[in-house]
Automatic annotation (TrEMBL):
Species of the source: Bremerella cremea
Organism classification: Bacteria, Pseudomonadati, Planctomycetota, Planctomycetia, Pirellulales
Segments crossing the lipid bilayer: 21-39
Designated name of the protein: Uncharacterized protein
UniProt keyword terms in alphabetical order: Membrane, Transmembrane, Transmembrane helix
Length: 85
């Protein structure tokens, strides 16, 4: 791997010989991220739990809001009756 990294594995006239260090660096960067995501796959359960809790919170807030809207509508707080003069 070190030989390929330094570009020594390519022949002298190869057009990518000078770029091999850059290409291998980019390649190893993505390989490193791949290993990170494989190792990090166990935390997906915690992320799903977080998303689930957030969804429950939002649904609960919407429920409370709709309850308050119904209460306001039934007591005419939002739309007071027109004065009968």
């Amino acid at each position: 791997m070190a030989i390929a990294w330094h570009g020594l594995i390519l022949p002298a006239g190869h057009p990518l010989r000078g770029d091999c260090f850059l290409l291998m660096t980019i390649f190893m960067f993505f390989v490193g991220f791949g290993f990170f995501f494989i190792a990090d796959a166990g935390s997906g359960r915690a992320y799903r739990r977080h998303v689930h809790e957030e969804a429950k919170r939002i649904i609960y807030q919407l429920y409370i809001q709709s309850y308050q809207d119904r209460q306001n509508a039934s007591t005419n707080k939002r739309f007071p009756p027109e004065s009968s003069t």
